[in-house]
From TrEMBL:
Residues 11-145 form the Polyphenol oxidase C-terminal domain. It comes from Artemisia annua. GO terms for molecular function: catechol oxidase activity. This is Polyphenol oxidase, C-terminal. It holds the Pfam family PPO1_KFDV.
Amino acid sequence: MAGSSTIPVNFPITLDKPTTVVVVRPPRNEREEEEQEEVLVIEGIEVKNDEFVKFDVFINDEDYVIGTGSGAEKTEFAGSFVKVPHKQRQDAGDCGEKLITTKLRLGISELLEGLGVEADDENILVKLVPKCENVHIVIGGIRIEIE
């Protein structure tokens, strides 16, 4: 984690403010680098069914030092998670707020290449930025898969 001042995160987390996480990249051989996609998986996203929820996902090289501004211009937007509220049926018999759990999958190989992240870099920084206030967002974990 050279140059990173990110505090280690223990999942699950409540996403109530921008949060940066160091994510370990799986080892790949040369053939896999050319033929397969790295996919960022944000799993165990727990939200209330009746709330509008949105958060953005940004990626950066692990060598970016948080708080110094160096390398901030290289941060790339990877995607967003959006959950539109659904009204619950009155006849369902469930008066409480229903929680749903889902995941977000984002292909990031081209982003990493554009950032200049080398194949031998072991980690990347992932920043989650909530766009709604006073909503329930829990993140169960973040990992990278090779597909």
